[in-house]
Design goal:
The protein is an all-alpha fold and about 70 residues long. It has a domain of about 35 residues. Helix content is about 65%, strand content about 0%. The protein is built from two helices and no strands. Helix 1 packs antiparallel against helix 2. It binds zinc ion. Zinc ion (ZN) binds next to helix 1.
Length: about 70
């Protein structure tokens, strides 16, 4: 079963991962930016976890197993 919300959360996660990969360690403010993206990724993880377990009016997401 598909879930559009889950798909969107996952694609946001992939985008953040890509962004993280593109941040070069040589950048002057690279560390700060990486920390920021990592923080965004953590809160997105929490959002995904919440959606998986209670995202559908308090019920688990039917697409959770595909995440
Ligand atoms: Zn869902």
């Amino acid at each position: 079963m598909n879930c559009q919300v889950k798909d969107e959360l996952v694609s946001r996660l992939i985008a953040l991962n890509n962004k993280l990969n593109l941040l070069s360690p040589d950048l002057v403010h690279g560390d700060e930016e990486r920390a920021e993206v990592q923080q965004q990724r953590e809160s997105l993880y929490a959002e995904i976890k919440h959606h998986r377990t209670k995202g559908h009016e308090g019920k688990p997401c039917p697409a959770a197993k595909q995440v």
